[in-house]
Amino acid sequence: MTANGDVAIVGAGLTGCLLAGYLARRGERVVLDERRPDPRLTGAERGRSINLALSERGLDALRRVGLDGTVLAGALPMRGRMVHAGKGADGALDFQPYSADGERAINSIGRRALNNLLLDAAQAPAEVEVRFEHRLTGLDPATGALTFETPDGPVHAGAAVVLGADGAGSAVRGELLRHGATTETLDFLDYGYKELTIPAVDGDFALDPGALHIWPRGRSMMIALPNPDRSFTCTLFWPTGGTESFASLSSPAAVEQYFTAHYPDVVPLLPELVTEYRENPVGLLGTVHCAPWQARGRVCLLGDAAHAIVPFYGQGANCAFEDVVVLDRCLDDTGGDWSAALPLFDRERRADTEAIAEMALANFTEMRDKIASPLFKLGKRVEHALERALPGRYVSRYELVSFSTVPYSVVRRRVRAQHRLLGAAAAGALGHSGAVTAFRRKS
Q1: What gap in Å lies between CA 119 and CA 129, rounded to an integer?
Q2: Which is nearest to 128 in space by CA: 34, 194, 42, 231?
Q3: What is the pLDDT of residue 423?
Q4: Cβ count within 10 A of residue 135
Q5: What are phi and psi for residue 380, nearest 5 degrees?
Q6: Which residues are within 8 A (CB) of 347 and not within 5 positions of it... i.e. 6 or more apart?
Q7: What is the DSSP letter of 233?
Q8: What sign does the CA torsion over 277, 282, 286, 290 have?
Q9: Model confidence over 381-396: pLDDT tens digits?
């Protein structure tokens, strides 16, 4: 345990709340500070929810503290992508399962619902105190001294250990930068996102709720994930500049005309299209790189605060939850010595977060440009055939990322080797039986 028994966690979002629960289980006294008011009372910020696709890494972290069943009770399983490839009013559909057997699923859950559940769980142990409307304005990495701005004025506090779980715009990271304790690189895409809503129709889902819906449109795309209230949250991923971008649609007529031309099958399902399009904000998309994540063995960044990634593999929250598991293991390995555990966490976890950041960017290109192409679909059929023929020996990148806890860096190395064979097979260099034979010889 820490010298005075105190750990300060800055950020009561998904990562901070789960982390508080893990540390309370270890007997640590935790103060969890959040800049926002209690979100269970105020609701979500309009147009900034981005539904989460919870998969095995996140579920594994929740399972270890007995929360997986509660979370899944409010989630909807999606067993594949439903590609809306055509631009006709009928929206020609192509269902692409995520796994070879068609049974494995990722789970759609609203960020607000999950955050509220984790907040409840974090506050349950006596070891955890949660303080809202505490915005970090100062941190001394050498002493753990903290300053917060609150509605009642500045508050000064201190902790033996300070953990920054306060998201991509982390104030803790900003303080480490100010003290010269870390460096950062922010790589923003020239794309943004905006949310729309497909409400229930006559009390039922307007689209198949068992799939993640995608409308690939070359340089842009839209996705839709189901919600328990039978609505869908749609997210537009469009360029931020140019002739076909968020900036180019300046009038209600232009919005309606563009959607009718590019998403005609969705227009009848979006009764508030113009209002939501004009009022909901455009969010930024980017990757955060910083090094080191920890300072002096007493301050450390986790989740998006350390390594925010683009959302195109659905791994942001899953990766952050896995961070909590890895830190917990590092504390076990060092006998609870934070000064040893935090540098160990930085060393052990970095390669994996860099790997998923790279794979998430690659998956954006796949979702946006490739999934409707005949060659891509052929490749997926060959890949699933190889998985069925060689169970456990050939596993697709998607399955390794979403349905296992194999380290991301290991996934990247393994898949590169597999793709050399897959590329040859998809190009017609090998027939199905020849591909299997060749893979057996190589493995």
Answers
A1: 11
A2: 34
A3: 66
A4: 16
A5: -65, -40
A6: none
A7: E
A8: negative
A9: 887 888 888 888 888 8
Burial of 358 (0-12, 13-18, 19+ CB in 10 A): middle
Beta bridge partners, 153, equal: 150
In Å, what is the CA distance from 400 to each residue of 171, 278, 313, 404? Answer: 33, 39, 12, 5
Of residues 53, 79, 51, the one with CA closest to residue 231: 51
Phi then psi for 7, rounded to 5 degrees?
A: -120, 130
What tokens appear for 123 in the block?
């506050």
pLDDT at 416: 87
Residue in the structure block whose two tokens are 């060689």: 390
The DSSP 8-state label assigned to residue 271 in this structure reads T
| Angle, alpha carbons 280-281-284 (nearest 5°) | 145
Q: What is the 3-state secondary structure (H, E, C) of 133-173?
A: CCEEEEEECCCCEEEEEECCEEEEEECCEEEECCCCCCHHH
CB 78 within 8 A of CB 212: yes
Positions in the chain whose pLDDT score sits under 50: 1-4, 429-431, 433-435, 439
CA-angle at 392, arms to 390 and 394, nearest 5°? 55
Helix (H) or strand (E) run with residue 331 in it: helix 316-333
Nearest to 342, CA basis, from 329, 358, 356: 329
**pLDDT for position 382:** 81
Task: Say how far apart CA 41 and CA 12 lie, in whole Å.
Answer: 14
DSSP state at residue 246: G
The per-residue pLDDT for 429 is 44
Cis peptide before 343 (omega within 30 of 0): no
Q: Are strands 283-291 and 232-239 parallel, antiparallel or unpaired?
A: unpaired
Beta strands across the sheet bearing 76-78? 52-54, 106-109, 76-78
pLDDT of residue 379: 77
User: How is the chain split among helix, strand and coil, in percent rounded to 5?
Assistant: 40, 25, 35
